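Reopening this ticket.

The earlier resolution said the output was attached, but the attachment link was broken on my side. Pasting everything inline this time so it's all in one place.
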Amino acid sequence: MRETIIKEVGEEVFDYLSKFTKVVDGETLVVFTSSVFNIENQEFNKYKNIVNLRRINDIIRINKFFEAVNVKIPNNGVFIGHVETKNQRRERYFRKFPAVINHFFYFLDFIIKRIFPKFLLTKKIYFYITGGKNRVITKTETLGRLFSCGFEVINEKEINNHLYFVAKKVKEPVFDNNPTYGPLVRLKRVAKDGKIINVYKMRTMHPYAEYLQAYLFDTNNLKPGGKFKDDYRVSTIGKIMRKFWIDELPMLINLLKGNMKLVGVRPLSKHYFSLYSKELQDRRIKYKPGLVPPFYVDLPETLDEIMASEKKYLDAYEKNPFLTDVKYFFAAFYNIMIKRARSN
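Inline output:
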């Protein structure tokens, strides 16, 4: 088994696998497969760990595969796999082909493998050409799918231009039938009375990014302004959209629906909301969240400063709602247009 694994993926990969599981014992199933059938055909709880040596780019229904692995191993069991990420794929293309030609081939690959799957009219063409295999997948989507399927990523490492991951089963899969995959996304946010509403935005992050917020907080922490440091979830196009506020435009839908107002504390995800003090949590949910948050008035940098900024706004709003929102709107407008304030 050891020699077979080394022959297939190399000694460095074997050593990596050995750090997290006894690869050659009876508790670990080692496979090289893209078929869900080869996982579903295994006995329940026969194996504590499953290692798949085939990259997940070649698995047609990735979530179904991850869910099948989840079912077959017990809690705290380990699943190890690997992926060629979007960036690693780009590096491979630029090494494989000569200059100029590599840009042409990568552009074709981008159109077929990245653009076609996103639209209904071209999706069938994509699957006809590729059969769903050799797909382009980002690091964000890979890790996000694992979390959505009941795993917790405990380690990741780049080996031979592939990203290897070690994931521990911690719960049952979410079975999310509506992941945020299209250009318009609906983000679940905490609003008035603690209700969860869908906040509409243009996609600026890779698919399944919403499942990685807690993981990113644990591994990357926050940078000034309350955003995550080195947030690889944000796409290249997404950075441009954020710079020019294009991603915020669909939030006007929330304004028309009446579950948000023009000025107010920003709607937060459950995880980000949990980082706030209990006192501020209780005060925030008394009012509708706003499109223009007090952040753009005070320009805080740390989480404590952000909370202090929102507390100051709520203190003023409770005394005089209308005048406070007018004052904050024009102060934010000045900072955004003149000082070029940004939240990202």
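Reporter confirms the inline version is readable. Residues 250 and 276 are 26 Å apart (CA to CA). The first helix runs from residue 2 to 9.
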